[in-house]
């Protein structure tokens, strides 16, 4: 076909009603492939410019990397870069590894600094080595500088495209200069004021400049805010994200040890960091090593290996549980004790998992710190006593009817009280211990806590039974 007018009339409501994926399969992929086969540059260019870049990238889902790049080549350079930025990372990597290096070097040069560095870190190093000499000198230096920062630090997620001005400018001069810089900047809401050697002095907002249009001769030095919240390029990205969230910043400046302004981290990058950290914690809480790629894109054997590590540890705890049971063989000759064994160990594991979840969450949000351990111990003891008393009352009623005597039934409530107390204490203290050791508290996953408490529960249950019976 020769045009793409149907794409222009596509409404968001229609997309919501029928679903993006169904429309792609039934309409747009065949049309795109038809335009590619006919080498319809006009139609492809119209397709690329008709909608928001993110929606266009959605409609391209299902194309091979070669086909996707053929579509993008028909667009003008700014549009091409925008759409490329919304493609799946796997597709972006495939395009860079299989395309023409000269064309792709131009694409890389136009991308936001932080995005292109993240992408190049996923590309085959041999391809990157061939491509970098083709990138313009200034952009190449910027790429090498950002790639030097370790993964997970502020420097690795910052952008070097910063609105910066000297404090000697007036409001009028500042607006004129920002007008010249704006095309190359990711955000101009915050304008950073620097000294002659790029030392960070302060900032003014675009709003301040606009509201002072009636006083165009006002100096930036009279407007700027000097007491700034900054981060260093070597700071952990999670710490940076917490600062931005705490102060509701749209961006935060990144400085080096000498307070030179080296870049900024914008709110959209902070959202990515928070999502990444939350995803990692969710994996660890489920006793799974974090995935580097999506679930379906992760090779089966690699996914198996990631799960096998923690499962082996948990299997070891289960084996210790079996050994503990074997050592109390005589006590288990009282068959009715076996009936209550799952109840006892699950009560301890469940309360321990609850405590671990509460403490890990509180540590993540900075509500508590390891120095609060005494208050936490006291609260968990009281909580464990209340929960234990409640469960013990229910347990005794069940034991009264199933145990051989009311005295024998006391094994159940006594054990439940002890196990619940141990569960709450271990579930609370183990994440605190990990945090104190500088480890991620999420490593103390709920299955891990439950495995420890299972063993403790069996030991307590058997010893209480031996003592009373």
How does this model look, in words?
The chain has 469 residues and is mainly alpha-helical. It folds into three domains: 152 residues, MgtE N-terminal fold, CATH 1.25.60; 107 residues, CBS-domain (Roll), CATH 3.10.580.10; 169 residues, SLC41 divalent cation transporters, integral membrane domain (Tetracycline Repressor, domain 2, Orthogonal Bundle), CATH 1.10.357. Helices cover 65% and strands 6% of the residues. The chain has 24 helices and six strands. The strands form two sheets. A three-stranded mixed beta sheet has the order 1-2-3. The radius of gyration is 30 Å and the shape is elongated. The N terminus is likely disordered.
Characteristic key phrases:
6% strand, mainly alpha, CBS-domain, Tetracycline Repressor, domain 2, 24 helices, 469 residues, MgtE N-terminal fold, elongated
């Amino acid at each position: 076909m020769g045009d793409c007018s149907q794409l222009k009339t596509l409404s968001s409501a229609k997309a919501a009603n029928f679903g993006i994926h169904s429309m792609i399969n039934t309409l747009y992929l065949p049309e795109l492939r038809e335009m590619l086969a006919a080498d319809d540059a006009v139609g492809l260019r119209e397709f690329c410019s008709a909608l928001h870049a993110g929606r266009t990238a959605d409609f391209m889902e299902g194309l091979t990397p070669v086909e996707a790049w053929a579509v993008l080549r028909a667009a003008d350079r700014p549009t091409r870069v925008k759409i490329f930025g919304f493609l799946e990372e796997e597709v972006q990597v495939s395009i860079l590894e299989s395309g023409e290096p000269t064309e792709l070097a131009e694409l890389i040069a136009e991308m936001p600094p932080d995005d292109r560095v993240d992408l190049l870190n996923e590309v085959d190093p041999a391809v990157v080595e061939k491509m970098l000499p083709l990138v313009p000198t200034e952009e190449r230096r910027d790429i090498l500088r950002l790639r030097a920062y370790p993964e997970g630090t502020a420097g690795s997620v910052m952008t070097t495209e910063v609105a910066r001005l000297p404090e000697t400018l007036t409001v009028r001069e500042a607006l004129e200069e920002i007008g010249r810089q704006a095309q190359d900047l990711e955000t101009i809401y915050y304008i950073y004021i620097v000294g002659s050697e790029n030392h960070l002095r302060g900032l003014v907002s675009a709003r301040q400049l606009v509201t002072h249009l009636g006083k165009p001769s006002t100096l930036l030095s009279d407007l700027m805010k000097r007491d700034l919240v900054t981060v260093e390029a070597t700071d952990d990205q999670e710490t940076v994200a917490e600062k931005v969230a705490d102060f509701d910043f749209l961006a935060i400046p990144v400085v080096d040890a000498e307070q030179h302004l080296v870049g900024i981290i914008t709110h959209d990058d902070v959202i990515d960091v928070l999502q990444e950290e939350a995803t990692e914690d969710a994996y660890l809480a489920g006793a799974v090593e974090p995935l580097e790629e999506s679930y379906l894109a992760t090779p089966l054997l690699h996914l198996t290996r990631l799960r096998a590590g923690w499962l082996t540890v948990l299997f070891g705890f289960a084996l210790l549980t079996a050994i503990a049971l074997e050592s109390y063989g005589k006590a288990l000759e009282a068959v009715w004790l076996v009936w209550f064994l799952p109840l006892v160990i699950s009560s301890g594991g469940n309360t321990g998992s609850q405590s671990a979840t509460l403490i890990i969450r509180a540590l993540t949000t900075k509500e508590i710190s390891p120095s609060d351990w005494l208050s936490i111990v006291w609260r968990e003891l009281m909580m464990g006593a209340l929960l234990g008393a409640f469960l013990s009352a229910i347990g005794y009623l069940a034991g009264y009817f199933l145990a051989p005597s009311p005295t024998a039934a006391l094994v159940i409530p006594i054990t439940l009280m002890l196990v619940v107390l141990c569960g709450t204490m271990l579930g609370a203290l183990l994440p605190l211990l990990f945090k104190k050791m500088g480890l991620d508290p999420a490593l103390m996953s709920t299955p891990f806590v439950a495995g420890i408490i299972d063993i403790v529960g069996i030991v307590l249950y058997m010893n209480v039974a031996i003592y009373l019976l």
